[in-house]
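**Reference record**
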Amino acid sequence: MGVDRDDEPTSGWKSIYGNKINSDEDKSSGGGETAAATELSGRTRSGSYPQTNRPAAASGSPDSTSREATNQEPLTRTAAKTASVPPVRRRKPRVLLWSFLIALGIVLSVMTGIVFYLWNGLRPASASATPVQISISSGMRAKKVAEVLEQNGLIRNASLFSAYLKLKGEGSRFQAGEYVLTPGMTRDQIIAKLNNGETVATATIRFTIPEGFTIEQIANRLAETASVDKAKFLDAASKPELWAGSTWTRAIPTDKNLKYPLEGYLFPETYEMKRGSTELDIINRMLSELDHKLDQLPEDWQSTLEERGLTVHQLLTIASLVEREVVVDDERPIVSSVIQNRLTKKMPLQIDATIQYLLDKQKERLLEGDLKVNSPYNTYLNAGLPPGPIASPSLKSIEAALFPGKSDYLYYVTKKDGTNTHLFAVTYKQHQKNIQLSEKNVKK
Protein backbone atom coordinates (compact mmCIF):
# COMPACT_ATOMS: atom_id res chain seq x y z
CA MET A 1 0.00 0.00 0.00
CA GLY A 2 1.58 3.31 -1.09
CA VAL A 3 2.05 6.43 0.91
CA ASP A 4 0.00 9.47 -0.15
CA ARG A 5 1.92 12.42 -1.56
CA ASP A 6 0.73 15.99 -1.28
CA ASP A 7 1.50 16.74 -4.92
CA GLU A 8 -0.41 13.87 -6.36
CA PRO A 9 -3.91 14.37 -7.63
CA THR A 10 -6.71 12.77 -5.64
CA SER A 11 -8.61 11.63 -8.73
CA GLY A 12 -5.96 9.08 -9.72
CA TRP A 13 -2.44 7.86 -9.15
CA LYS A 14 0.80 8.68 -10.87
CA SER A 15 3.14 5.86 -11.84
CA ILE A 16 6.54 5.98 -10.27
CA TYR A 17 7.81 4.87 -13.78
CA GLY A 18 6.33 7.70 -15.78
CA ASN A 19 4.54 11.03 -15.64
CA LYS A 20 1.27 9.88 -17.15
CA ILE A 21 -1.81 10.35 -14.91
CA ASN A 22 -4.00 7.27 -15.02
CA SER A 23 -7.70 7.72 -14.51
CA ASP A 24 -10.10 5.17 -13.18
CA GLU A 25 -11.19 4.62 -16.78
CA ASP A 26 -7.69 3.80 -17.76
CA LYS A 27 -7.42 1.34 -14.94
CA SER A 28 -10.59 -0.41 -15.93
CA SER A 29 -9.57 -0.56 -19.60
CA GLY A 30 -6.16 -2.06 -19.05
CA GLY A 31 -4.24 0.81 -17.64
CA GLY A 32 -2.31 -1.65 -15.51
CA GLU A 33 -0.99 -3.35 -18.61
CA THR A 34 0.05 0.01 -20.03
CA ALA A 35 1.88 0.78 -16.84
CA ALA A 36 3.52 -2.60 -16.94
CA ALA A 37 4.60 -1.96 -20.54
CA THR A 38 5.97 1.39 -19.52
CA GLU A 39 7.70 -0.27 -16.60
CA LEU A 40 9.20 -2.86 -18.92
CA SER A 41 10.29 -0.11 -21.28
CA GLY A 42 12.07 1.68 -18.50
CA ARG A 43 13.59 -1.63 -17.37
CA THR A 44 14.81 -2.44 -20.82
CA ARG A 45 16.57 0.89 -21.17
CA SER A 46 18.23 0.85 -17.76
CA GLY A 47 18.64 -2.89 -17.27
CA SER A 48 16.83 -2.75 -13.81
CA TYR A 49 13.90 -1.16 -12.15
CA PRO A 50 14.53 2.45 -11.19
CA GLN A 51 15.06 3.00 -7.50
CA THR A 52 12.34 4.95 -5.65
CA ASN A 53 11.66 5.98 -2.13
CA ARG A 54 8.37 4.13 -2.08
CA PRO A 55 8.38 1.21 0.28
CA ALA A 56 7.78 -2.17 -1.21
CA ALA A 57 4.31 -3.58 -0.76
CA ALA A 58 3.83 -6.05 1.98
CA SER A 59 4.39 -9.61 1.01
CA GLY A 60 1.22 -11.33 0.06
CA SER A 61 -0.79 -8.18 -0.40
CA PRO A 62 -3.19 -8.10 -3.30
CA ASP A 63 -1.58 -5.08 -4.84
CA SER A 64 1.85 -6.66 -4.81
CA THR A 65 0.69 -9.89 -6.31
CA SER A 66 -1.27 -8.11 -9.01
CA ARG A 67 1.68 -5.84 -9.91
CA GLU A 68 4.09 -8.74 -10.15
CA ALA A 69 1.73 -10.68 -12.38
CA THR A 70 1.15 -7.67 -14.53
CA ASN A 71 4.87 -6.91 -14.84
CA GLN A 72 5.91 -10.50 -15.72
CA GLU A 73 3.54 -11.00 -18.66
CA PRO A 74 4.88 -8.32 -21.05
CA LEU A 75 8.47 -9.17 -20.11
CA THR A 76 7.99 -12.76 -21.18
CA ARG A 77 6.42 -11.75 -24.51
CA THR A 78 9.10 -9.19 -25.27
CA ALA A 79 11.86 -11.64 -24.43
CA ALA A 80 10.28 -14.22 -26.73
CA LYS A 81 10.04 -11.70 -29.53
CA THR A 82 13.67 -10.69 -29.05
CA ALA A 83 14.84 -14.31 -29.03
CA SER A 84 13.02 -15.07 -32.30
CA VAL A 85 15.07 -12.50 -34.38
CA PRO A 86 18.63 -13.83 -35.03
CA PRO A 87 21.48 -11.35 -35.01
CA VAL A 88 22.63 -10.06 -38.45
CA ARG A 89 26.27 -10.89 -39.29
CA ARG A 90 28.46 -9.11 -41.84
CA ARG A 91 29.33 -11.52 -44.71
CA LYS A 92 31.02 -9.12 -47.15
CA PRO A 93 34.66 -9.83 -46.18
CA ARG A 94 34.14 -13.57 -46.65
CA VAL A 95 32.58 -13.07 -50.15
CA LEU A 96 35.53 -10.95 -51.23
CA LEU A 97 37.95 -13.56 -49.96
CA TRP A 98 36.25 -16.34 -51.89
CA SER A 99 36.13 -14.21 -55.06
CA PHE A 100 39.85 -13.50 -54.78
CA LEU A 101 40.66 -17.16 -54.23
CA ILE A 102 38.57 -18.23 -57.24
CA ALA A 103 40.18 -15.59 -59.49
CA LEU A 104 43.63 -16.60 -58.28
CA GLY A 105 42.84 -20.22 -59.00
CA ILE A 106 41.75 -19.38 -62.56
CA VAL A 107 44.90 -17.34 -63.22
CA LEU A 108 47.12 -20.08 -61.84
CA SER A 109 45.32 -22.69 -63.96
CA VAL A 110 45.79 -20.62 -67.15
CA MET A 111 49.43 -19.96 -66.36
CA THR A 112 50.00 -23.62 -65.62
CA GLY A 113 48.38 -24.55 -68.93
CA ILE A 114 50.58 -22.09 -70.84
CA VAL A 115 53.75 -23.28 -69.12
CA PHE A 116 52.85 -26.89 -69.83
CA TYR A 117 52.10 -26.09 -73.48
CA LEU A 118 55.45 -24.36 -73.91
CA TRP A 119 57.34 -27.05 -72.05
CA ASN A 120 55.68 -29.88 -73.93
CA GLY A 121 56.04 -28.17 -77.32
CA LEU A 122 59.74 -27.37 -76.92
CA ARG A 123 60.96 -30.53 -75.23
CA PRO A 124 62.71 -33.12 -77.42
CA ALA A 125 60.58 -35.49 -79.46
CA SER A 126 60.23 -39.06 -78.34
CA ALA A 127 63.59 -40.75 -78.61
CA SER A 128 64.08 -43.35 -81.30
CA ALA A 129 67.02 -45.42 -82.44
CA THR A 130 65.96 -45.04 -86.07
CA PRO A 131 67.59 -41.99 -87.73
CA VAL A 132 65.58 -39.79 -90.07
CA GLN A 133 66.91 -38.25 -93.28
CA ILE A 134 65.61 -34.84 -94.28
CA SER A 135 66.41 -32.49 -97.14
CA ILE A 136 66.93 -28.74 -96.72
CA SER A 137 66.83 -26.96 -100.06
CA SER A 138 68.66 -23.76 -100.90
CA GLY A 139 66.79 -20.63 -99.85
CA MET A 140 64.37 -22.52 -97.58
CA ARG A 141 63.01 -20.29 -94.81
CA ALA A 142 63.42 -21.20 -91.15
CA LYS A 143 59.64 -21.62 -90.79
CA LYS A 144 59.60 -24.18 -93.60
CA VAL A 145 62.58 -25.99 -92.04
CA ALA A 146 60.61 -26.21 -88.78
CA GLU A 147 57.66 -27.73 -90.65
CA VAL A 148 59.94 -30.33 -92.25
CA LEU A 149 61.35 -31.19 -88.81
CA GLU A 150 57.86 -31.59 -87.33
CA GLN A 151 56.64 -33.71 -90.26
CA ASN A 152 59.54 -36.08 -89.68
CA GLY A 153 58.96 -36.37 -85.93
CA LEU A 154 62.12 -34.50 -84.93
CA ILE A 155 60.35 -31.72 -83.03
CA ARG A 156 56.94 -31.52 -81.42
CA ASN A 157 55.68 -28.10 -82.50
CA ALA A 158 56.87 -26.20 -85.59
CA SER A 159 55.32 -22.90 -84.49
CA LEU A 160 57.06 -22.92 -81.11
CA PHE A 161 60.33 -24.01 -82.72
CA SER A 162 60.08 -21.10 -85.20
CA ALA A 163 59.42 -18.68 -82.33
CA TYR A 164 62.42 -20.10 -80.50
CA LEU A 165 64.60 -19.55 -83.59
CA LYS A 166 63.48 -15.91 -83.77
CA LEU A 167 64.13 -15.40 -80.07
CA LYS A 168 67.64 -16.82 -80.41
CA GLY A 169 68.37 -15.12 -83.73
CA GLU A 170 68.85 -18.49 -85.44
CA GLY A 171 67.73 -19.94 -88.75
CA SER A 172 69.50 -17.61 -91.17
CA ARG A 173 72.66 -19.75 -91.19
CA PHE A 174 71.00 -23.08 -91.96
CA GLN A 175 72.81 -24.77 -94.83
CA ALA A 176 71.17 -26.68 -97.63
CA GLY A 177 71.73 -30.38 -98.02
CA GLU A 178 70.75 -33.83 -96.85
CA TYR A 179 70.80 -34.39 -93.07
CA VAL A 180 70.47 -37.47 -90.89
CA LEU A 181 68.92 -36.57 -87.51
CA THR A 182 67.78 -38.77 -84.65
CA PRO A 183 64.44 -38.29 -82.87
CA GLY A 184 65.17 -37.24 -79.29
CA MET A 185 67.83 -34.67 -80.18
CA THR A 186 67.44 -31.37 -78.34
CA ARG A 187 66.47 -28.29 -80.29
CA ASP A 188 69.94 -26.77 -79.75
CA GLN A 189 71.60 -29.92 -81.11
CA ILE A 190 69.42 -29.76 -84.22
CA ILE A 191 70.17 -26.05 -84.72
CA ALA A 192 73.92 -26.62 -84.36
CA LYS A 193 73.89 -29.42 -86.92
CA LEU A 194 71.98 -27.34 -89.48
CA ASN A 195 74.24 -24.32 -88.88
CA ASN A 196 77.41 -26.39 -89.32
CA GLY A 197 76.14 -28.02 -92.49
CA GLU A 198 76.76 -31.55 -91.21
CA THR A 199 75.22 -33.08 -94.30
CA VAL A 200 75.50 -36.63 -95.48
CA ALA A 201 76.85 -37.67 -98.81
CA THR A 202 74.01 -38.45 -101.20
CA ALA A 203 74.11 -40.50 -104.32
CA THR A 204 74.70 -38.13 -107.23
CA ILE A 205 75.41 -38.12 -110.92
CA ARG A 206 78.22 -35.98 -112.27
CA PHE A 207 78.63 -35.05 -115.91
CA THR A 208 80.48 -32.48 -117.98
CA ILE A 209 79.09 -30.82 -121.09
CA PRO A 210 81.97 -29.39 -123.20
CA GLU A 211 81.71 -25.98 -124.83
CA GLY A 212 80.42 -26.14 -128.39
CA PHE A 213 78.36 -29.33 -127.94
CA THR A 214 75.09 -29.62 -129.83
CA ILE A 215 71.92 -30.92 -128.20
CA GLU A 216 72.40 -34.30 -129.85
CA GLN A 217 75.95 -34.50 -128.54
CA ILE A 218 74.72 -33.52 -125.08
CA ALA A 219 72.08 -36.27 -125.21
CA ASN A 220 74.72 -38.83 -126.19
CA ARG A 221 77.05 -37.71 -123.41
CA LEU A 222 74.30 -37.94 -120.79
CA ALA A 223 73.29 -41.38 -122.00
CA GLU A 224 76.90 -42.55 -121.60
CA THR A 225 77.75 -40.93 -118.25
CA ALA A 226 74.47 -40.35 -116.41
CA SER A 227 72.22 -43.21 -117.58
CA VAL A 228 69.86 -40.70 -119.23
CA ASP A 229 67.38 -41.86 -121.84
CA LYS A 230 68.43 -40.06 -125.03
CA ALA A 231 65.00 -40.20 -126.65
CA LYS A 232 63.29 -38.78 -123.55
CA PHE A 233 65.91 -36.05 -123.30
CA LEU A 234 65.41 -34.92 -126.91
CA ASP A 235 61.64 -35.11 -126.46
CA ALA A 236 61.77 -32.86 -123.36
CA ALA A 237 64.08 -30.47 -125.25
CA SER A 238 61.35 -29.95 -127.87
CA LYS A 239 58.54 -29.01 -125.43
CA PRO A 240 58.74 -25.33 -124.40
CA GLU A 241 55.82 -25.66 -121.98
CA LEU A 242 58.01 -27.83 -119.71
CA TRP A 243 60.97 -25.45 -119.49
CA ALA A 244 61.18 -23.57 -116.21
CA GLY A 245 64.89 -23.05 -115.68
CA SER A 246 65.46 -19.83 -117.64
CA THR A 247 63.50 -16.64 -118.22
CA TRP A 248 65.09 -16.23 -121.66
CA THR A 249 63.52 -19.36 -123.13
CA ARG A 250 60.22 -17.46 -123.29
CA ALA A 251 61.74 -15.30 -126.05
CA ILE A 252 62.69 -18.21 -128.30
CA PRO A 253 60.92 -17.59 -131.62
CA THR A 254 58.33 -20.08 -132.76
CA ASP A 255 60.18 -20.86 -135.97
CA LYS A 256 59.52 -24.18 -137.68
CA ASN A 257 62.98 -23.97 -139.20
CA LEU A 258 64.61 -24.43 -135.80
CA LYS A 259 66.11 -27.87 -135.62
CA TYR A 260 66.00 -27.87 -131.82
CA PRO A 261 64.44 -24.81 -130.11
CA LEU A 262 66.70 -25.27 -127.06
CA GLU A 263 69.90 -25.44 -129.09
CA GLY A 264 72.42 -23.01 -127.61
CA TYR A 265 70.50 -22.51 -124.34
CA LEU A 266 71.88 -25.50 -122.42
CA PHE A 267 74.98 -24.00 -120.86
CA PRO A 268 78.18 -26.08 -121.08
CA GLU A 269 79.46 -26.83 -117.58
CA THR A 270 80.26 -29.60 -115.09
CA TYR A 271 77.14 -30.55 -113.19
CA GLU A 272 76.40 -32.66 -110.12
CA MET A 273 72.83 -33.71 -109.50
CA LYS A 274 70.91 -36.22 -107.42
CA ARG A 275 70.84 -39.71 -108.78
CA GLY A 276 67.41 -40.32 -110.20
CA SER A 277 67.03 -36.82 -111.64
CA THR A 278 64.80 -36.88 -114.70
CA GLU A 279 65.71 -35.70 -118.18
CA LEU A 280 63.59 -32.60 -117.60
CA ASP A 281 65.36 -31.94 -114.27
CA ILE A 282 68.70 -31.91 -116.09
CA ILE A 283 67.41 -29.60 -118.83
CA ASN A 284 66.04 -27.09 -116.32
CA ARG A 285 69.25 -27.21 -114.30
CA MET A 286 71.31 -26.39 -117.39
CA LEU A 287 68.91 -23.60 -118.35
CA SER A 288 69.22 -22.03 -114.90
CA GLU A 289 73.00 -22.05 -115.36
CA LEU A 290 72.58 -19.98 -118.52
CA ASP A 291 70.74 -17.29 -116.54
CA HIS A 292 73.46 -17.41 -113.91
CA LYS A 293 76.17 -16.88 -116.52
CA LEU A 294 74.32 -14.06 -118.28
CA ASP A 295 74.09 -12.29 -114.92
CA GLN A 296 77.91 -12.18 -114.93
CA LEU A 297 77.98 -9.94 -118.00
CA PRO A 298 78.44 -6.17 -117.53
CA GLU A 299 75.38 -4.49 -116.05
CA ASP A 300 74.59 -2.62 -119.26
CA TRP A 301 74.75 -5.68 -121.52
CA GLN A 302 71.04 -5.55 -122.36
CA SER A 303 71.30 -1.88 -123.30
CA THR A 304 74.24 -2.71 -125.55
CA LEU A 305 72.20 -5.47 -127.14
CA GLU A 306 69.32 -3.09 -127.85
CA GLU A 307 71.69 -0.51 -129.35
CA ARG A 308 72.95 -3.13 -131.76
CA GLY A 309 69.40 -4.17 -132.63
CA LEU A 310 69.89 -7.77 -131.47
CA THR A 311 67.79 -10.15 -129.38
CA VAL A 312 69.14 -12.64 -126.85
CA HIS A 313 68.32 -15.41 -129.33
CA GLN A 314 70.44 -13.70 -132.00
CA LEU A 315 73.21 -13.05 -129.47
CA LEU A 316 73.40 -16.74 -128.62
CA THR A 317 73.31 -17.60 -132.32
CA ILE A 318 76.37 -15.40 -133.06
CA ALA A 319 78.09 -16.73 -129.94
CA SER A 320 77.53 -20.32 -131.10
CA LEU A 321 79.14 -19.51 -134.49
CA VAL A 322 82.16 -18.02 -132.72
CA GLU A 323 82.33 -21.05 -130.42
CA ARG A 324 82.43 -23.55 -133.27
CA GLU A 325 84.91 -21.52 -135.36
CA VAL A 326 87.43 -20.43 -132.71
CA VAL A 327 89.72 -22.28 -130.31
CA VAL A 328 92.03 -19.52 -129.12
CA ASP A 329 90.28 -17.02 -126.84
CA ASP A 330 92.13 -13.99 -128.26
CA GLU A 331 90.58 -14.59 -131.66
CA ARG A 332 86.96 -14.71 -130.46
CA PRO A 333 86.37 -10.91 -130.69
CA ILE A 334 88.09 -10.84 -134.12
CA VAL A 335 85.91 -13.58 -135.61
CA SER A 336 82.90 -11.84 -134.04
CA SER A 337 83.92 -8.64 -135.87
CA VAL A 338 84.05 -10.54 -139.17
CA ILE A 339 80.50 -11.77 -138.59
CA GLN A 340 79.36 -8.27 -137.67
CA ASN A 341 81.02 -6.74 -140.75
CA ARG A 342 79.45 -9.30 -143.09
CA LEU A 343 76.01 -8.79 -141.56
CA THR A 344 76.36 -5.04 -142.01
CA LYS A 345 77.29 -5.51 -145.68
CA LYS A 346 74.54 -8.13 -146.10
CA MET A 347 77.08 -10.69 -147.24
CA PRO A 348 76.53 -14.43 -146.72
CA LEU A 349 78.47 -15.49 -143.64
CA GLN A 350 79.88 -18.61 -145.41
CA ILE A 351 80.74 -20.30 -142.09
CA ASP A 352 81.67 -23.96 -142.39
CA ALA A 353 80.36 -24.74 -138.91
CA THR A 354 76.77 -24.15 -140.06
CA ILE A 355 77.23 -26.80 -142.79
CA GLN A 356 78.67 -29.26 -140.28
CA TYR A 357 75.55 -28.73 -138.16
CA LEU A 358 73.41 -29.94 -141.06
CA LEU A 359 75.29 -33.15 -141.57
CA ASP A 360 74.42 -36.32 -139.76
CA LYS A 361 78.11 -36.89 -139.10
CA GLN A 362 80.86 -34.34 -138.56
CA LYS A 363 83.41 -34.16 -141.34
CA GLU A 364 87.07 -33.23 -141.22
CA ARG A 365 86.86 -31.60 -144.60
CA LEU A 366 83.79 -30.30 -146.36
CA LEU A 367 83.21 -31.09 -150.01
CA GLU A 368 81.83 -28.80 -152.67
CA GLY A 369 78.54 -30.68 -152.65
CA ASP A 370 78.14 -30.12 -148.90
CA LEU A 371 78.05 -26.40 -149.47
CA LYS A 372 74.98 -26.75 -151.68
CA VAL A 373 72.69 -28.47 -149.14
CA ASN A 374 69.33 -26.73 -149.15
CA SER A 375 68.73 -25.64 -145.57
CA PRO A 376 68.06 -22.41 -143.66
CA TYR A 377 71.24 -23.22 -141.74
CA ASN A 378 73.37 -23.13 -144.91
CA THR A 379 75.13 -19.77 -144.61
CA TYR A 380 76.70 -20.22 -148.06
CA LEU A 381 73.32 -20.07 -149.73
CA ASN A 382 71.47 -17.74 -147.30
CA ALA A 383 72.46 -14.29 -146.14
CA GLY A 384 72.16 -13.31 -142.51
CA LEU A 385 72.12 -15.45 -139.39
CA PRO A 386 70.84 -19.04 -139.31
CA PRO A 387 67.46 -19.62 -137.58
CA GLY A 388 69.14 -20.25 -134.24
CA PRO A 389 72.29 -21.31 -132.42
CA ILE A 390 74.21 -24.32 -133.72
CA ALA A 391 75.85 -25.25 -130.38
CA SER A 392 76.15 -24.31 -126.72
CA PRO A 393 78.47 -21.27 -126.49
CA SER A 394 80.82 -20.49 -123.62
CA LEU A 395 80.64 -17.26 -121.65
CA LYS A 396 83.71 -15.94 -123.50
CA SER A 397 82.03 -16.50 -126.84
CA ILE A 398 78.90 -14.74 -125.57
CA GLU A 399 81.03 -11.79 -124.46
CA ALA A 400 82.75 -11.71 -127.88
CA ALA A 401 79.39 -11.75 -129.64
CA LEU A 402 78.17 -8.90 -127.43
CA PHE A 403 81.36 -6.84 -127.75
CA PRO A 404 82.98 -7.68 -131.14
CA GLY A 405 86.46 -6.37 -131.91
CA LYS A 406 86.97 -3.38 -134.17
CA SER A 407 88.28 -4.46 -137.56
CA ASP A 408 87.63 -4.32 -141.29
CA TYR A 409 88.12 -8.04 -141.79
CA LEU A 410 85.66 -9.89 -143.96
CA TYR A 411 87.53 -13.22 -144.37
CA TYR A 412 89.51 -15.70 -142.32
CA VAL A 413 91.03 -19.13 -142.82
CA THR A 414 92.74 -21.52 -140.44
CA LYS A 415 96.53 -21.58 -140.57
CA LYS A 416 96.59 -25.36 -140.30
CA ASP A 417 99.96 -25.24 -138.58
CA GLY A 418 98.83 -26.81 -135.32
CA THR A 419 98.29 -23.51 -133.53
CA ASN A 420 94.52 -23.49 -134.06
CA THR A 421 94.75 -19.86 -135.13
CA HIS A 422 93.55 -18.03 -138.26
CA LEU A 423 94.71 -15.75 -141.04
CA PHE A 424 92.45 -12.72 -141.50
CA ALA A 425 91.90 -10.59 -144.59
CA VAL A 426 90.01 -7.50 -145.63
CA THR A 427 89.84 -8.24 -149.37
CA TYR A 428 89.07 -11.40 -151.24
CA LYS A 429 92.41 -11.24 -153.02
CA GLN A 430 94.27 -11.20 -149.75
CA HIS A 431 92.08 -14.03 -148.55
CA GLN A 432 93.16 -16.17 -151.54
CA LYS A 433 96.78 -15.66 -150.59
CA ASN A 434 96.02 -16.71 -147.01
CA ILE A 435 94.42 -19.91 -148.30
CA GLN A 436 97.60 -20.73 -150.24
CA LEU A 437 99.68 -20.16 -147.11
CA SER A 438 97.39 -22.44 -145.21
CA GLU A 439 97.76 -25.22 -147.82
CA LYS A 440 101.52 -24.93 -147.64
CA ASN A 441 101.37 -25.48 -143.88
CA VAL A 442 99.48 -28.72 -144.50
CA LYS A 443 102.20 -30.03 -146.83
CA LYS A 444 104.89 -29.28 -144.22
Observations:
- DSSP finds 15 helices and eight strands in the chain.
- The CA atoms of residues 94 and 147 lie 52 Å apart.
